[in-house]
Amino acid sequence: MNATAKRVIGLVLAGLLIVGVVIVVVGGRLFGGTTGTAPAATDLRVVHGVIGSEKKPFFDDPAVRAVFAEKGLDVAVVTAGSRQIATSVDLTGVDFVFPSSAPAAEKIRREAGARSVFSPFYSPLAIATFLPIVTLLQSAGIANQDAAGTWHLNVAEYLKAVAAGTRWNQLPGAAASYNSSRSILISSTDIRQSNSAAMYLAIASYVANGESVISSADAEAAVIDPMAALFLQQGFSASSSEAPFEDYLSQGIGSKPLVMIYEAQFLGRQMSATGRSAITPDMVLMYPDPTVLSKHTVVPLSEQGSQVGELLQSDPRLARLAAQYGFRPADPAVFTAALADNGLTVPASPVNVIDPPSYETLEAMITTISGRYDTPLASPDANVDK
């Protein structure tokens, strides 16, 4: 064999070696091999959780799943309303629950005997609306805009308008901007199932009770009729907070002029690379005055559930990812940075914030209102996303 042939064979062998290395490295990355730091997919422990629907996109995020995978966890979640989680969802085989309601979480903690809970982030209750709507409400003394440009709904004045049966076309200037014969009414989720509706009830009952948290049967009885009207007059309401918000985005001002949501839903959509175009220039985020904070609380039901809660509360990467979905982590700087990185104005932390009633009191009001519906509520299925 001459020198030229030897050089050719050597080059061919070297090339095959390089190709082999590339195949091993790329194959490991694509197919979950153990050449990196993360465990192989087959080595992950599946952890089952039941969560509020507004957190589903966060848990589905590949970056979030990768953080859990580093710790050997494959977190599988289904969704249900917070009240459903606390009252009717079968939690057999569930490792953790993550409702949007602190009172519901406390009930579950007591009944499950959980030693600790985790509250990694929160979100104020807010209202998704439109510029012509807030302008009309401002002219009627029901809404106002602060020096920073943030819109606020005066809940006391709003309740007066609802009680009087006021229609949009009765407001000054409605003929030119929103000449609708519909009654002024916030669209919410189903009070029998969802936490955002329960928190709406907490706010409205506080104001109707002379700006005092409902804490007795007498106080409940005094306000229950106008409170029931807020929900019964809506007609059909969805079971999860995602549904009315999606209707707001897709159907517009004619269908959903006022929608009770979580702040995180609106801000998260604005920070979504694929979804931000749904927020049009005439869409406005308004805050009820007073408002309430939805404290997203993990209640672990197993050791693996505790590990999920600890990671959500302590891992800075998960805090940054939560902020990208509009949630407010414990460190305000993380939330501020996420909004600033997306060119959004950082809303001030709400000042006029109330505490919700105890779980028992809130549940008593919801039960009374539920009894006034014409149709019974369908049985929940924890195995189907709500």
Quick take:
This protein is of the alpha/beta class and 386 residues long. It folds into 2 domains: 41-122 and 294-341, Periplasmic binding protein-like II (D-Maltodextrin-Binding Protein, domain 2), CATH 3.40.190; 124-293 and 351-370, D-Maltodextrin-Binding Protein, domain 2 (3-Layer(aba) Sandwich), CATH 3.40.190.10.
CATH superfamily of the largest domain: Periplasmic binding protein-like II
Structural class: alpha/beta
Kindly identify the CATH topology of the largest domain. D-Maltodextrin-Binding Protein, domain 2
| Shape estimate | globular
State the CATH class of the largest domain: Alpha Beta
Number of domains: 2
Mean pLDDT: 87
Low-pLDDT parts are: 3-36, 379-386
CATH architecture of the largest domain: 3-Layer(aba) Sandwich
Number of strands: 11
* Residues in helix, %: 40-55%
Q: Distance between termini?
A: 73 Å
Order of helices and strands: HEHHEHEHEHEEHHHHHEHEEHHEHEH
Please report which band the strand proportion falls in: under 5%, 5-15%, 15-25%, 25-35%, 35-45% or over 45%.
Answer: 15-25%
Characterize the largest beta sheet: strand count, sense, and whether it forms a barrel.
Answer: 11 strands, mixed
Radius of gyration: 25 Å
Helix count equals: 16
Keywords: Membrane, Transmembrane, Transmembrane helix
Organism: Cryobacterium zhongshanensis
Protein name: Extracellular solute-binding protein
Transmembrane segments: 12-32
